[in-house]
Amino acid sequence: MRALDAYYIIKPFVPRTIQLTLRRALAARKRRTSAAVWPIDQNSAKHPPGWRGWPGGKAFALVLVHDVDTAAGARQALALMEAERGLGFRSSFNFVPERYQLDPAIRQDLVNSGFEVGVHGLKHDGKLFKNKKVFNERASRINAYLRSWRSVGFSSPSMLRNPSWLTELNIEYSCSSFDTDPFEPQNDAAGTIFPYLVKNLDESRSYVELPYTLPQDHCLFVILKESDLFVWKQKLAWIAACGGMALLISHPDYMSFNNSRRSTKCYPARYYLDFLAFIAENYSDRFWHPLPRDMAGFWRTETIVNPSGLPSPEASSLSNEVMGI
């Protein structure tokens, strides 16, 4: 049995406070040993061959994504949407179809407001990629939700992934990888701050992978217990200077909108909103800000026009070190 499989068997029986304590200890050690590649891996800045730049001549791209892990997060989705819209931003909200009951009105309000809705796994139980039989059975249900929700995007819980298997989903894009993140359970990095195309073996099916390139909020503020925006600002400045894609995955589940105090499990929502305000004020019209589906459409067009202009995805393998507590 893989260590990751064993972990997800015992996880429901481990109190959340103990999970967080163990994960913080592991993350502190990992942070010390990964300083050369996190939060910035200089090697991931290389432009794809033949790169022609972002639409409108913008210096960099900014994509905002929310993975909604719980019913509590779903209940806060519209409040987060309104806050983002007030600052002039749009994003995608990815929901877990079979972990909690999702009010269809939430999805509809998001779409009607110009936001996007995607699928975040199926059950969020760490078993999607356990074996091919399990994946095939769940993939058919995920495809049914994609069709029902009229969604074209997918994000994998805990960034667990098998790129070639994911081509069996009826998606235009996936947000299931990262340029660098030693804190994920499957911590093999994509090694690029640009999107890339993933194809199956006979190249009959493909999707655009959008790696996240800014540290996730839960990792930064809940696990590493950062209390300011320095890491986000530092990484964003570097991405902008390199002309890459700044993609941020955050979670309304772990944002506190009711007060400015942080807790063991949550951080003040103002951290995220202050970061958006900082971007608007300091980068103004320097960035292209598409929804993920529009980024995927642009990148697929670039692939057709310039087929040599995209990096090839590397083979994915599970890490033996369990960090996804």
Secondary structure blueprint with pairings:
Blueprint: H1 3-10, H2 16-33, E1 60-68, H3 71-75, H4 77-86, E2 92-95, H5 104-112, E3 116-120, H6 132-149, E4 153-155, H7 163-166, E5 173-174, E6 196-199, E7 206-209, H8 217-223, H9 230-242, E8 245-250, E9 255-256, E10 267-268, H10 269-283, E11 287-288, H11 292-305
Parallel strand pairs: 1-2, 1-8, 1-11, 2-3, 3-4, 4-5, 5-7, 9-10
Antiparallel strand pairs: 6-7
Features:
alpha/beta; TIM Barrel; nine-stranded mixed β-sheet; 11 helices; 11 strands; 13% strand
Describe this structure in words.
The chain is α/β, with parallel strands linked by helices. The protein has one domain: Alpha-Beta Barrel (TIM Barrel), CATH 3.20.20. 37% of the residues lie in helices and 13% in strands. The chain is built from eleven helices and eleven strands. The strands form two sheets. Strands 1, 2, 3, 4, 5, 6, 7, 8 and 11 form a nine-stranded mixed beta sheet that branches. The protein has a two-stranded parallel ribbon with strand order 9-10. The two termini are 17 Å apart.
